[in-house]
Amino acid sequence: MVRAAVLPAVGAPLEIAEIDLPDPGPGQVRIRLAAAGVCHSDLSLSNGTMRVPVPAVLGHEGAGTVVSVGEGVTHVAPGDPVILNWAPSCGTCHACTLGEVWLCANALNGAADVYAHRASDGSDLHPGLNVAAFAEETVVAASCVLPLPEGIPLTDAALLGCAVLTGYGAIHHSAQVREGETVAVFGVGGVGLSTLQSARIAGATTIVAVDVSSEKEELARAAGATDYVVASENTAREIRTLTGKQGVDVAVECVGRAVTIRTAWESTRRGGRTTVVGIGGKDQQVTFNALELFHWGRTLSGCVYGNSDPAKDVPVLAEHVRAGRLDLGSLVTERIALDGIPGAFENMVAGKGGRALVIF
Q1: Do 253 and 279 contact (CB within 8 A), yes or no?
Q2: Alpha-carbon distance 25 to 301, whole Å?
Q3: Burial degree of 169 (CB within 10 A; 0-12, 13-18, 19+)
Q4: Whole-prediction pTM value?
Q5: Which residues have a Cβ under 8 Å from the Cβ of 90 and sit 6 or more positions away?
Q6: What would the mean pLDDT of 83-105 be, rounded to a whole number?
Q7: Which of 67, 120, 137, 175 lies at a C-alpha separation of 20 to 30 Å from 234?
């Protein structure tokens, strides 16, 4: 038996409980978690903004060590350090055949599976976003497991599984920031901090961080921000002032609120690009009129998982870490135990801190 944070129902508080994990079957891997990041997507799953079958063990950003493998698994072996990939591509759907693996139609099929049982009553448990990382150990499909490149600390490597892939991909794949361009990043949480670091790596000059909290300025500047703006009704005007009244070339929205998306769009220059990373609810409606769309010539695009291919991008990120360009540890503002996850959720709602990391 292992301890896990169980979501018994949408909107219910997490419960720390013992669960029974089966041995890995064909094509499966059992992993002992070293760390798991607490992502805003986990909060969205717990409150119903995003839907998954429940009861479930959440957590999708994790790293650990292989305990055992099932029949047919050859790319990892017991004792190997690995990263969890919560959105594995099937390789055969329309999106995958186009090379857009981040849009795989079958990526989340595993979330509907029963992967474990509650020890107290034998009730079924689902694996959240495929990997159920909020547990001491988990059993996942082999496609959800990536070997950890050499030279990367195992606990910090958990962040590569979501926050860093998303932030890096938003800059390098979705917005395709070029050296010398200007960037604004809205929301200075784990993904926002990763986006700031990635903008610096891309060679952006002016990098503006925007957040509702003035307390995050030091974090943002350490990640690469050259300027910091506390969000207000004048945010777009302040950003245009910082960029010679033009607006930034690229804005990345990491919040998922209609007002923030609209402000990010208004903060870009004529012909600028806005990439939306934040996951908002259906009630968050963003409106534009036809004339302004024509006049400004701006681009607004969604961004799923950083438009990344983890198998290709993780080795690239690892090289940035080894070279000192990407600092994973600086994204973490709180290291907690399993029972600290509800508090981490509360901090996210309050807009406090960067990434909370569960250490096992």
Answers
A1: no
A2: 40
A3: buried
A4: 0.96
A5: 96, 104, 105, 106, 107
A6: 97
A7: 175
